[in-house]
Structure formats: structure tokens, C-alpha cells
Amino acid sequence: xxxxxxxxxxxxxxxxxxxxxxxxxxxxxxxxxxxxxxxxxxxxxxxxxxxxxxxxxxxxxxxxxxxxxxxxxxxxxxxxxxxxxxxxxxxxxxxxxxxxxxxxxxxxxxxxxxxxxxxxxxxxxxxxxxxxxxxxxxxxxxxxxxxxxxxxxxxxxxxxxxxxxxxxxxxxxxxxxxxxxxxxxxxxxxxxxxxxxxxxxxxxxxxxxxxxxxxxxxxxxxxxxxxxxxxxxxxxxxxxxxxxxxxxxxxxxxxxxxxxxxxxxxxxxxxxxxxxxxxxxxxxxxxxxxxxxxxxxxxxxxxxxxxxxxxxxxxxxxxxxxxxxxxxxxxxxxxxxxxxxxxxxxxxxxxxxxxxxxxxxxxxxxxxxxx
Length: 371
Ligand SMILES: Cc1cc2nc3c(=O)[nH]c(=O)nc-3n(C[C@H](O)[C@H](O)[C@H](O)COP(=O)(O)OP(=O)(O)OC[C@H]3O[C@@H](n4cnc5c(N)ncnc54)[C@H](O)[C@@H]3O)c2cc1C
Hints:
Geranylgeranyl_reductase, 17 strands, alpha/beta, 9-stranded mixed beta sheet, 8-stranded mixed beta sheet, FAD-bd, single chain, binds flavin-adenine dinucleotide, NAD(P)/FAD-dependent oxidoreductase, FAD/NAD(P)-binding domain, FAD/NAD-bd_sf, FAD binding
């Protein structure tokens, strides 16, 4: 029987595996894709993770990520405000970031099962049986669910957040656009959505947006939606007209849900987006995935080294998860209400222009301390 199986190899799964290996525990990670690959993500990472990644010697400084210290918000009709970002962040593609973490995990001896999908997880007689599509099942003492915002495993496990259909889609491109300052992340509102742009590595920029599915239903396709809905914001119109788009077609995901989830479900320890997803405008999902990986791996190490009971492992992690993230997720959902409509986005710009105190307060509600 394996000690730990991690399902999903995004940042949550990779960092959990690295931390467990550092403590000498054997880990098997199952990932349905193979590295490197692109994901829908704004690719802005909050600096709160830097100290932790440096201490673990897994900070990807060799790719020279761009440093981001300012935020621009524009309203649906193009009004604009700038704010300094106290904590700041850096821009790096997931293609590079996840691949770098994967290589580090391989070097540390994590066992990878790639291009394989976990189809079911059962807990019986104090152990797990993980079914892998096209291969035989595996037994494990502990299973980490790091399978992201939405996986077929959620359905198989009958998770409650699926009951409510999500109205959002996410779209990502890499572009070249030298009109955008390197130290700036911009959030441009459009009707029923918002679009981020920031520099990543080399001379590339990430352009990523969250849109209500209804925008797409009213359009013939994504490009038509960008021409007729996103481009009503003059800042976005300029980007879509002048930038060079580097992908043949965009990366697209459906059904992005911000509903609350359980951090421990049917004894599976959930990590990253599988435990709860923060609204993308906060630019904090990756930092939360890494922070939850740190917290969870600490509890798993305690379980094995100090012979804690499973009950204690689950209740300690659940409690720590709630303290660290519950409020941030709630705040992110509330702040997202200021985005995506003409009236609310004008109010957001007004707050950013007139009250630095309120704007800073709102930003802090969705971020954690450096760790
Ligand atoms: C539009 C948008 C923009 C965003 N912008 C930002 C941003 O700028 N900054 C930021 O910090 N965050 C951002 N986020 C959030 C961020 O992308 C996530 O919070 C982060 O990727 C979570 O990492 P994770 O490891 O939990 O999940 P993921 O990175 O999604 O990884 C999950 C992995 O599990 C694998 N998997 C799923 N099911 C199975 C299965 N059954 N078997 C095997 N493998 C499986 C998947 O292939 C995937 O590799 C954004 C999100 C969206 C939707």
C-alpha cells in the first residue's frame, strides 16, 4: 500500500508532493496531462509566496519573472484608476512555473503517473482505493485531492458545490503588446466580466478574462464576443486591435464555480482549488494553492511522524484551512460584485481614485501575509 497519493499536479499537488518528499515520505502523484502545458490563469503570483519558495529552493528565478507593483482598474466605459500594490507580485506563465515545479519534484523522487486520470476514490477499512482509468487500482493510506476547480472526481464523489451550475467561462492568451508597462497589472471591466493583462517572462504578456456564459450565448463565437462585448471598453478594444496574439486559439475553460466546498470530503484532504476557489480578480489563487499545500503537508507529516489519528489529521487541517482561507474567499466573492457592470465598475474606479484607504483595505481582505 502507498503512503500518500496526490491526485492532480497543479501548484497545490506539486508543492504538497515536494514538501512531503523533503520530509522523507514516499509520494505518488497522478496527473491527467503531461508537462509542460498551458492552463487558463492570469499568471500573476502574489509575492506572499516568495519567502517560502526560496526556503524550499523552488523559486523559479532562472526564468526572470516580471515584477509587478501597480494595479490599474478600468470601468466598462473606460474610466481608469491606478493604485500601488503594497505586497506586489510577479508574472510567470504556468507553462514555465508548473514545469519547473514538476522537474523539482522529479529530482526529489516524487513518483509520477502522467496522462492518467483518477476515476474514483473509495475509502474502506481505513484505507483508500484509487481507480485509475486504463490501469489497475492503487491502495493508499492518505489521499490528497488537488484536482483543481472542477474534475470528474467531484461528480464521482457527489460533491455538493456541483448542484449549482456556474455561469462563468475563462479564456486565456499569450500576446505581445509593448504598450503595457512591465510593472503593471490591469483589470479591465466589460459587461458581465473582466479581463486581466500583465507581463510574464521574456517579451510576453498574459491576457486572461472571466466572462459570464451568457455573453458567449449572445455571440456566434469567442472572437465575436471579444469584438462586440469586450471591445466596448476602449482599453480592451485597443489591445484586441493592436496586440500580436501568440496562440493559434485561446485556452478556454467552462463552469468555473466560486461556491464553498469542503476542505476534507469523504476523508480525502482537499488542497488548492479543490478545497475552494477564490475569484480571479484577487490574483491570489496560486498563492492560496501553495499556502494550502504547505499547511496540508505539515499536517500529513505530523500524522505519519507523530502517529496522529486520522480524525486528528482531518480536524486539524479543516480548522487551519478555515482560519487561513474562509474569509478571503468570502471577501473575493463580495469584491467581484464591483466588477462586470457599468455602474459597479465606475464605483470601483471612483473608490480607487478617491480613497486609497478603502482600496488598500479591500485588497488586503483577499491576500494573506507573506509566509
Ligand atoms: C480566469 C482565471 C484567471 C486566474 N488568474 C489568476 C491569477 O492571475 N493569479 C492567481 O494566483 N490565480 C489565478 N487564478 C486561479 C489559479 O489558476 C488557481 O487558483 C490555481 O491554478 C489552483 O491550483 P490547483 O493546483 O489547485 O489547481 P490546478 O492548477 O487547476 O491543477 C489541478 C490539476 O489536476 C489535474 N486533474 C484534474 N482532475 C484529475 C483527475 N481525475 N486525475 C488526475 N489529474 C486530474 C488537472 O489536469 C490539473 O493539472 C485564475 C483562475 C481563473 C479561472
